[in-house]
Amino acid sequence: MRYFLLLPGLLTLWAAGPAQAQTFETSVHLTGGGFNFRGNSAVRETVLISVRTADNDGYTNNPYGARPGFSYGAALQLQRVTKSRLLLGLQAGYERLRSRVDLILIGGPWDDNLANIKGKTTLTNEFVNAHPFVGRRFGLGNVDLDLSAGADLGLLFYSREKGRATDENGRVYSVDQGRDQPALDARARLDLTAYYQRFGLALSYSHGLSNYRRDWVGGVNDAYAQVWRAGVVYRLQ
Q: What DSSP string runs through 9-77?
């Protein structure tokens, strides 16, 4: 976490360096990929807890799915490239990240008699992201290859679970409700981007450091995010 706190200051100091030995690049990034949870509390299957309300048939016992869901985002990036091909930059954008978990059983909160069901719950989280980074540019003929690492700070403003399942008699159950999550999802991030002239292809991975179940009581509570991205890039300058 100290690294995350120091990196914005390092970006400011380096950006103030000699202008004659650098270039600045601005680019637009569109990404798609997968998002899921890792850790002892990340699950592939869970139970639908049956507590009827006006809008829901219950809630997902553990919505932190280890199964990835399709996710996407967009960002604007500014980076400095020094004469020695070192990179220093900042990316800011929006992401909609979704994970999945299969629903296989249904029962009441204190009911040991569980019935079989078949369905899934999707947990959707939306973030405004800031990604300060450092890296290095490598040349491969006419291709610029950028390798960088940095912090990936996601400010959460929306989280909701939506699920649907069917029992052996054909009865349909549904859940649709908001979820309380950590306001900040801090992640470590690694990027690889290849540019040809103004166009580029990008790959990245973010390894979550914020425990989504840190306020839960009882049992093992470890659920951390991870994000896999692939995208296209256009250099504005």
A: HHHHHHHTS-GGGEEEEEEEEEEEEEEEEESTT-BSEEEEE----SS-S-EES---BSEEEEEEEEEEE
Number of domains in the chain: 1
Cβ burial, residue 102 (10 Å; 0-12/13-18/19+):
middle
Q: Which two tokens stand for residue 208?
A: 């979550």
Phi, psi of 173 (to 5 degrees): -120, 145
> pTM for this one?
0.86
Per residue in 20-55, pLDDT tens? 568 999 999 999 999 999 999 999 999 999 877 666
Q: Tens digits of per-residue pLDDT, 144-179? A: 999 999 999 999 999 999 999 999 999 999 999 999
Count CB neighbours of 190 within 10 A: 16
Q: Which domain holds residue 65?
A: 2-12+21-235
The answer to whether 48 and 105 have CB atoms below 8 angstroms apart is yes
